[in-house]
Amino acid sequence: MTTLSYADSALSLLPPLVAILLAIFTRRVLLSLGVGILLGAIFISDYSVVNAGQYLSQQVLGLFWDDGAINSWNVYLLGFLILLGMITALITVSGAAKAFADWARQHIRNKRDAKLLTMFLGCVVFIDDYFNSLVVGSVARPLTDRYYVSRSKLAYLLDSTAAPICVISPVSSWGAYIIALIGGILTAHGFTDSGHLSVFIQMIPMNFYAIFSLLLLLCVAIMGLDVGPMRQHEFNAQKGNLYDESKGLPPGASHDLPEADSGKVLGLFLPIGVLVFATIYFMVSSGADALTAENLPFSVLGAFENTDVASSLFFGALVGLGVTLVLVLSQGLEKSYLFKGLFVGAKSMLPAIYILLFAWTIAGVIGQMETGKYMANLATGSIPFALLPAALFVLAGVTAFSTGTSWGTFGIMLPIAADMAMGTHTNMMLPMLAAVLAGAVFGDHCSPISDTTILSSTGANCHHIDHVVTQLPYALIVALISLVGYGILGFTESVAAGLLTCAGLFVVAVLILRHKASQPV
């Protein structure tokens, strides 16, 4: 099969952009992703329909079987989703979710406190963005439902704590991956004076988008800054419509489960707590095994750098499911409750699994078309030095938006940013690397084909495109603030000047949002 290279062609942008625009305008995610996949396959196959069919069959097979072995990352992650669906359903069947909602009504005073608790949980559970979105969603959903917080708002709370926290936390799957990448880049360029962890920590205040995303989320939670599509969703939620029922049940949701009256709050917190600690154990354990295999000394950071995230999530969920089953059986519930919970819980995750499979397929197509390389090539043009941090922020954002992956964007754009810094001004190396990290998270937040965005929708039981369009205004506001900040940083070569500029613009933005939110619906 003839395969063309599109690394130097704007055509490489067409499949993801077609899929994204179709998803936004038609709100039919699977159809839109399918069109993008078919378009890319035809391009890759030299416009041969027969070859495109063969190529797609190979791509689909590769989701489960790759290089003569099971594609463990995908299989484990899908298994984690199914197990988590079962755990959530069993918690509902046992009456624990209802018991937690009753407890929350007595201890959580109002809607604002429910949102703040959700945000707090999102900041505490920072080991992985997938884990954050799904687990915090399971815990917080009964609480936010009780106070009529829309599912779109819950998805925004989950998504805007997951990636921003993970990207600035060294002890997380993201932090470990970034430290490993940056460490290799700095070593290759002769920067051996500072430790890789200390360099990562130095870059935290330079990640303007992550910092101000969290601050804006805090203001939205406290002040109720509901604007754009989010405002209508929150208005509908006050009338009891937590999501758009005309679109059917969202991924992860099910309303045909019985609920026992004998549930206890412990029935929610114990399984989730065991799930969290078991997952951390397996992450450290798998990382330690990898270090031992390479004859390297053990360290927590080293373990996180080498951990197998997907298998850790799966086995952690397996332990969590076992504890949940023991608790449900100890209540003496009818076996029909148990079997229905397991079946309905697994089934509730199928819509999310379908979307993920399509998203992974288009990611493979995009990788084959070298969309990321095309975006990277744009960054190597004649851009004035002072504009490089801002330009890298934008290009990383567009790359992550088009490809749906922050990690892929890190891998493509960070080496290019380092090379550009070496060729211009080495003192700006870290700010330019930080601009890439910030832009990648921004693009990931906005992209309908991002797996983090998909799983945040799933964790909130929210329709996927509703989450995308309601989060978009907030993401764009913070991106604009960050863009100006990186411009100031580039011209002044001062991180403090960039931060202060962002802080001033942030205050202005919050005041404007507060004024708009106070207007009648």
Question: Mean of the pLDDT scores?
Answer: 83
- The end-to-end span amounts to 56 Å
Elements, N to C (H/E): HHHEEHHHHHHHHHHHHHHHHHHHHH
Poorly predicted ranges: none
Strands across the major sheet, in which order? 1-2
Tell me the number of helical segments per DSSP (H or I, 4 or more residues long): 24
Number of strands: 2
Overall, the morphology is: globular
Beta-strand content estimate:
under 5%
Task: Break the fold down into its secondary structure elements and pairings.
Layout lengths: L13 H13 L2 H16 L4 H14 L2 E2 L2 E2 L1 H22 L2 H12 L3 H14 L4 H18 L4 H18 L4 H16 L7 H8 L4 H16 L5 H10 L27 H28 L6 H6 L3 H22 L4 H14 L1 H19 L2 H9 L8 H16 L2 H19 L4 H18 L4 H10 L3 H29 L2 H23 L4
Antiparallel strand pairs: 1-2
Helix pairs in contact: 1-2, 2-3, 2-17, 4-15, 4-16, 5-7, 6-7, 6-8, 6-11, 7-8, 7-22, 8-9, 8-11, 8-21, 8-22, 8-23, 9-10, 9-20, 11-23, 11-24, 12-23, 13-15, 17-22, 18-19, 18-20, 19-20, 19-21, 19-23, 20-21, 21-23, 23-24
